[in-house]
Design brief:
Layout: E1 3-17, E2 21-28, E3 32-38, E4 57-64, E5 69-78, H1 81-84, H2 87-103, H3 111-124, H4 131-145, E6 151-155, E7 165-169, E8 174-177, E9 188-189, H5 192-203, H6 216-233
Parallel strand pairs: 3-5, 6-8
Antiparallel strand pairs: 1-2, 1-4, 2-3, 4-5, 7-8, 7-9
Helix pairs in contact: 2-3, 2-4, 3-4, 4-6, 5-6
Length: 245
């Protein structure tokens, strides 16, 4: 075995391999996106059984080989039981994990992505927060973390800031004010509350993201913007998205 390294991260997915082993995909703060093998994780009473399933978060000790990692042990801080015990939550969690895996790369700091995924999974377990809101916030903030989010503070027509916006254009990648909306391509008209929500989503501390609610109308508007943002930034179809409400 190679040297032992410790990483903080979350299991995005877990796959059975060979007769008793598992292969996990880990999103880590220190090493970015990596895969690791957990030998004997499927054997009865293996200490690696519970720590190598999807959505567990904690510190993982890994043997570092030439081309792969092997799990030695893990100290799990959060199992997200409220997610794995609800089928709808599992679908959303899988979608969030798939999006995170799309953006993550080995060798980069994924701290913000881990924190975002963590708070999104926490929000899923709260009945007071609509699952669609959790999804839309997650999508927009994840794209923002990776530097591909539209400008929600400047009119794409007159280039003015701190004015009243009224529409979003996916084609033009931003918002338009009342005076310039006629130049917007395929505009999505937005209420003032929705515009404020968009600005809050990309600027608020991650731990404060899920501290607001929206009316049904605003939630629909936010969903249309989130859909446009994802379509403009992600060039891969997320298989898990087909299972969402």
């Amino acid at each position: 075995m190679g040297d032992v390294t410790e990483v903080t991260g979350m299991v995005l997915s877990s796959m059975n391999v060979c007769e008793y082993d598992r292969r996990i995909v880990l999103l880590t703060k220190e090493r970015g996106l990596i895969s690791a093998f957990a030998k004997g994780a499927r054997k009865p009473n293996s200490p690696l059984t519970g720590v190598t399933r999807a959505f567990v978060f904690g510190k993982f000790q890994l043997y570092e080989g030439r081309s792969s990692y092997t799990v030695k042990q893990a100290n799990i801080q959060e199992y997200f039981e409220n997610v794995i015990c609800d089928l709808d939550n599992v679908y959303y969690g899988c979608y969030f994990a798939e999006l995170a895996e799309y953006y993550a790369r080995e060798g980069i700091d994924c701290g913000d992505m881990i924190n975002l995924l963590y708070v999104a999974l926490k929000a899923l377990s709260k009945a007071s927060i609509p699952k669609r809101l959790v999804r839309f916030v997650y999508e927009i903030r994840l794209v923002s973390i990776n530097g591909e989010c539209p400008d929600f503070f400047t009119c794409q027509g007159c280039q003015k800031e701190k004015i009243k916006f009224c529409a979003f254009s996916e084609t033009m990648h931003g918002l338009y004010c009342n005076d310039c909306v006629e130049y917007a391509v395929n505009p999505v008209y937005l209420s003032e509350s929705t515009v404020y929500a968009l600005q809050y989503i990309i600027t608020a501390p991650i731990e404060r993201l899920y501290t607001f609610t929206l009316s049904d109308q605003c939630l629909e508007e936010l969903g249309r913007v989130a859909s446009g943002v994802i379509q403009g930034a992600v060039d891969k179809e997320m298989k898990s998205a087909q299972m969402l409400l």
